[in-house]
Amino acid sequence: MSDPGTTAWAGGTFGERGRCVLAPNPSTMTLDGTNTWVLREPGGSRSVVVDPGPTDEGHLDAVAEAADGKVAAVLLTHHHLDHSEAAKAFAERMGCGVRALDPAYRLGSEGLGDGDVVAVDGLEIHVVATPGHTADSLSFVLPADGALLTGDTVLGRGTTVVAHPDGRLGAYLDSLDRLHALVERQDAMSVWPGHGPVIDDALGALDFYIAHRRSRLEQVEAAVATLRGSASGPLDAELLPRQVVEVVYADVDPVLWGAAELSVRAQLAYLDAR
Ligand SMILES: [Zn+2]
């Protein structure tokens, strides 16, 4: 969530199989808006839609049009409403199911989990569990285009929030390592994120994310030590996250401090458990 950036991003066509339809829901948390991904094999007749996004008729019409009205399945990267809100209604309209890790967000009997391969008209999507941003976060690999769809696990710019307590920092760090290893094996070269622009250098993006998390953790540890040193008694566990935010995120726009506090809570929980 640092570096809001100013690069124009409007979605578009990526690889031979990807089309990104940008939803009209920009905000400090969603950057330019939610990326809805329409994936189809060249010559195939049906598409897979990842994260239909918010309930907005114009957006859903554009997604249906990008899919030529033929959708075999809707997949969710995670349950957050800016990704999932329209999923069931859109799937009903397209006559298909919604597949998600969390059963509450599914439509139909098919689930979705680590190691699954979604195959539609020659299109192959490999599912990788990447918990951390949320417990139910999934990433999708499109080997034929060397693409890694990351949802909110890796964003197109800035960094993401570990949404404590559903999100867990230990799990998130493990997920980043897992994606890093996957990219190192060259199963994917580019990141097609849930918000913000496509990143051509997936390895560079993951290196940055991992280094950023490490340095934030060190900053949080240092801030706690300083606060402890200047306090007359034990630190108030309820006030501590906000006090740490004011030190560590002093360079970040205060409108993001609420989100930062969630990340700090996740970091304090991680440090406590170590
Ligand atoms: Zn999210």
What's the structural blueprint in terms of helices and strands?
Blueprint: E1 12-14, E2 18-22, E3 35-39, E4 47-50, H1 57-66, E5 71-75, H2 81-84, H3 87-94, E6 97-99, E7 117-120, E8 123-129, E9 138-142, E10 147-151, H4 169-184, E11 190-193, H5 202-230, H6 240-248, H7 257-273
Parallel strand pairs: 4-5, 5-6, 10-11
Antiparallel strand pairs: 1-2, 2-3, 3-4, 7-8, 8-9, 9-10
Bound molecules: zinc ion (ZN).
Write a structural description.
By secondary structure, this protein is of the alpha/beta class. It has two domains: 12-202, 4-Layer Sandwich (Metallo-beta-lactamase, Chain A), CATH 3.60.15; 212-273, no CATH class. It is 34% helix and 18% strand. The protein contains seven helices and eleven strands. The protein has helices at 57-66, 81-84, 87-94, 169-184, 202-230, 240-248, 257-273, and strands at 12-14, 18-22, 35-39, 47-50, 71-75, 97-99, 117-120, 123-129, 138-142, 147-151, 190-193. The strands form two sheets. A six-stranded mixed β-sheet has the order 1-2-3-4-5-6, covered by helices on one side. The chain has a five-stranded mixed β-sheet with strand order 7-8-9-10-11, covered by helices on one side. A hairpin with a 7-residue loop joins strand 3 and strand 4 (47-50). Helix 4 (169-184) runs antiparallel to helix 5 (202-230). The longest helix has 29 residues, at 202-230. The radius of gyration is 19 Å and the shape is elongated. The model has no long low-confidence stretch (mean pLDDT 94). The site of zinc ion has 4 residues, from loops.
